[in-house]
Write a structure and sequence with these properties.
alpha/beta; Arc Repressor Mutant, subunit A; 2 domains; 7-stranded mixed beta sheet; two-stranded antiparallel sheet; 11 strands; about 15% strand
Amino acid sequence: MSRYEALATKPPELHGIEPSIRAAFVLCPKFTLLPYAAFVDSLRHAADEADYSRQIYCKWKIVSEDRKTPIAASCGSLVMPDEEFGDAGDLNFVVVVGGLLPACLELSEAARSFIRGAYESGVAIVGLCTGSFILADMGLLAGRRCTVHHEHQTAFRALFPDVESVSDEMYVSDRGILTCPGGTSALDLAFHLIDTHCGKARAVKGLTSLLIEQHRSTSRFPHRPYGQLAACGNRKVQAAVEIMERHIATPYPISVLANKVGCSERELCRLFMKYGSDSPGDTWRNIRLAHGHWLLLNSDRGIAQIANECGFSDAAHFTRWFKSTFKETPDAFRRRRRIIK
């Protein structure tokens, strides 16, 4: 007996099970590999018992114009399609995987026709990463909400003013179109769909197999109150905001910050007022308060620990500024939200 034969256990027989999720993936030019891999592997683990990976409870395929031509990801990896575009009637999801801009917007007319036909047939459309740009470019997001990565928010709003875009939610579902900003948020959207369509047992099985502690809710992104400054186009302002967000626990004088981005304190203050409405000092404090707000919602840390992690000298100092900004104390805010939940 080979030393590996013990690993080749026979999977249990499962007959007559109709898959609850039937998805087709459309990979755009230079698509991002992580959102695709996160989503499809979530389906794989939920689709069968143990780790046999049969497509039983979930089925999926990659569709393209030419099933013999591999599709290149942004990292250079090549993925082969399974089928050419055809009838979407047996599907309940079409997953559009975005990627590098503007390359992903070069999605072919054949692919766009397939997506539009699926949508018109009542198939739910999922946009991963910059898939939201593709769907908006096709007119499918007009008058809808979607979620966009904070790095692309300014460009998205300029291109598609008729779409309400957010960057502080894991995923958004609006009338048959679901979007997520990419990265690991694709896991959360996938498990939301698995939970909804296949049941909690399938979702828990997938989470456990992927060593994920819990399914994050749609609102568990830390809020970025100055996300527009991070993408305003001014190098010094953007660099300053990036430093602020990296040093939430250890803020330092604005004069030092200005020196780090290559200008005087006076010039930095002028630039912040030009591109925003607050001074650099107020901006940094509000970024730290927003992080404290998020920790109060999404962690069990004590007020003193949160104050320390957000760069406040003590709990009293944090509480004073939190109440001034959010109109209630951190303790009252946490109690009220937990009662509501």
